[in-house]
Amino acid sequence: MPTLNWIGKEAVIRHHQEVPTRLLDPVPALSCSTGGHDDGNLIVQGDNLHALKALLPRYAGQVKCIYIDPPYNTGNEGWVYNDNVNSPEIRRWLGEVVGKEGETLDRHDRWLCMMYPRLVLLKQFLREDGAIFVSIDDNEVACLRLLMDEVFGVSCFVASNVWQKRYSRENRGAIGDVHEYIVVYAKQPDLFQDVRNRLPIDAKQAAVYKNPNNDPRGRWRGIPMTAQGYRPNQMYEVETPSGKKVQPPEGRCWSTIEAEFLKLKAEGRVYFGKTGTSQPSIIRYLSEVEGFVPWTWWPHEEVGHTDEARKEVQSLFGTQTAFDTPKPTRLLQRVIQIATNPGDLILDSFAGSGTTGHAVLKQNAEDGGNRRFILVEMDEHIARNITAERVRRVAQGYTNAKGERVDGLGGGFQYCRLSAEPLFAPDGQVRGDVTFAQLAEFVWFSETGTGFTATTNSPLLGTHEGRAIYLLYNGILNDLAPDSGNVLTGPVYDALPPHDGPKIIYAAANRMGRRAQREDIIFKQTPYALEG
Ligand SMILES: C[S@@+](CC[C@H](N)C(=O)[O-])C[C@H]1O[C@@H](n2cnc3c(N)ncnc32)[C@H](O)[C@@H]1O
Question: Which of 377, 432, 435, 437 has the fewest CB atoms within 10 Å, measured from its CB?
Answer without folding.
Answer: 432
